[in-house]
Write a structure and sequence with these properties.
alpha/beta, Metallo-beta-lactamase, Chain A, 6-stranded mixed sheet, 25% helix
Length: 102
């Protein structure tokens, strides 16, 4: 869903609590140069990728991931996203609060 110019939400990703969802955000820094804010559970990655594709982007367009905090529904898929992108098209940086970074 487009929120504003160059800002999108990836809706419809479930978490373990009925009636709740996690909503990652995509910032388009420049043409197909994306920042992903928070991820999701690994099991939700196929849905995440479909929604990203529906916005006209691919996983390889993600250049950086910002984790707001390390609750599993926000961060579990971060390393998997990085691994998938890094193996196909380059490097992805993951940013987190210094206490959580390790």
């Amino acid at each position: 869903m487009k929120i504003s110019e160059n800002v999108y939400s990836i809706d419809g990703l479930e978490i373990l609590f009925p009636g709740h969802e996690i909503i990652p955000y995509i910032l388009e820094e420049s043409d197909h140069d994306l920042t992903l804010i928070d991820t999701c559970y690994i099991r939700e990655l196929p849905k995440f990728e479909r929604n990203l594709n529906n916005l006209g982007y691919e996983m390889k367009d993600i250049k950086r991931i910002v984790l707001t905090h390390l609750h599993s529904e926000h961060s579990q898929a971060a390393n998997e996203v990085k691994k998938r992108i890094s193996s196909s098209s380059g490097q992805v940086e993951i940013y987190a609060y210094w206490i959580d970074a390790s």
